[in-house]
Write a structure and sequence with these properties.
The chain has one domain: Double Stranded RNA Binding Domain (2-Layer Sandwich), CATH 3.30.160. About 30% of the residues lie in helices and about 25% in strands. The protein contains 2 helices and 3 strands, in the order H-E-E-E-H. The chain has a 3-stranded antiparallel sheet with strand order 1-2-3, with helices on one face. The longest helix is centred in the C-terminal third of the chain and has 16 residues. This is DRBM domain-containing protein.
């Protein structure tokens, strides 16, 4: 299988789960935080009235990773897991 740069397995699974349990479509929001001379990027997703934030902050070229991270958190929440609290880690930098 070839590498697909725009692959979104967590986002796809989240969409599928929302359809399966008949709740609204997840709504993503990109957020930024100025850190010195650079900007860190992350994502939030709202599902079933709950907003969950990605665990990590990313470089701008990795925005899809931020959305994937948030989608994974939302899936854990919908599947009864307890999402971990957001981190200020600069993973992906």
């Amino acid at each position: 299988m070839a590498y697909n740069k725009s692959s979104t397995p967590w986002q796809d699974k989240l969409d599928e789960t929302c359809r399966d349990i008949q709740i609204g479509t997840p709504v993503f929001q990109i957020i930024s935080d100025r850190r010195g001379g650079r900007t860190a990027w992350s994502s939030r997703v709202t599902v079933q009235g709950k907003t969950l934030q990605a665990r990590f902050w990313y470089d701008g070229k990795n925005l899809n990773n931020a959305k994937e991270d948030a989608a994974e958190m939302a899936l854990n929440y919908l599947n009864g897991g307890s999402p971990t609290s957001p981190s200020t880690s600069r993973s992906g930098w």
